[in-house]
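Q: Got a minute? One more chain.
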Amino acid sequence: MTGGVASSELGTQPVGEAAEVAEGVYQLKVPVPIPLVFVSAYLVEGDDGWTLIDTGFDYPDGRAAWESGAAAVGCDLRRDVECIVVTHFHPDHLGAAHWLQGVSGAPVYMLEGEIGHSREVWETSDPAPFIDHLVRNGMERALAERAAAGTRADLTLPEKLVPLRADEEIPLGAGMARVLHAPGHADHQLMLHDEGRKLLFAADHVMLKITPNIGSWPDTHPNPLARYLKSLQGIRDLDADLVLPGHGPLFHDLRGRADELWLHHEERLEMMRQEISVAPRTPFEVSRKVFRYGLSLYERCFALAETLAHLDHLVLEDRAERMDDGLVSFRAV
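A: Always. Here it is, folded:
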């Protein structure tokens, strides 16, 4: 989704390189082997050491970017890292945390609920719940089995995981940051708000040019879109002059982007309601109508999950009815 909010002139360095974006704060564009191209990790310099925020996938190109990028800004990964903060459990954010902890010896911090959830997801190898979820929502079983085989990441969790709690304040470089719970894209995603420097480390909650996937997966708490929209309303007036997202350009207008995202989801909900006004449809059928053709199988799974979250939200708003006789479908009311 594109909108009227402008990109910042900060953070325009090439993928694989780091650049200062605020005093003592550096953005490192860590390459990732998925269409998003890079994840933004942040290195924050403090008197007692460096804080790293998010890590990328654990693979050779990512490790090389960390080695060269950290060295370029004066951070010795083997001696200078005080702590590592991971915003959520997805492999492009958590994946290299085990390696970075091994290199640095630093503890890895996550929101308390995300630690248990990460163990549940990454230490369980049974693909059956994921396959059944896709099939029950309209995907052909053979396709679902291929999707399950192709979307599983090989991820080893860090040995030392330390819990954070929503609304607590933690040291961040020369200042302090408040931990914000930011559900929707992940149930236990966190953001960090450094009010003193007016910075928001926004993870995948609020991004420019793209919208976060708000999806219903087998392990997702109910009504992720409702929780996401409520959170958007709660953060739109934060005192933040610079937004540092997990993907895409940096930007300055938090309120404007939050309003654009709200409008996007309202338009997407109406588009899906129109699809199920014609006849009852499965979430997979609706996803094939609403999202562009030519998606990879990996992307089709995300489209299905996002479609299901929106259809469930229509039910929550009494604009649709959910039917389930072993195969889920929805119709407008």
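A: The CA atoms of residues 115 and 161 lie 7 Å apart.
Q: Perfect, thanks.
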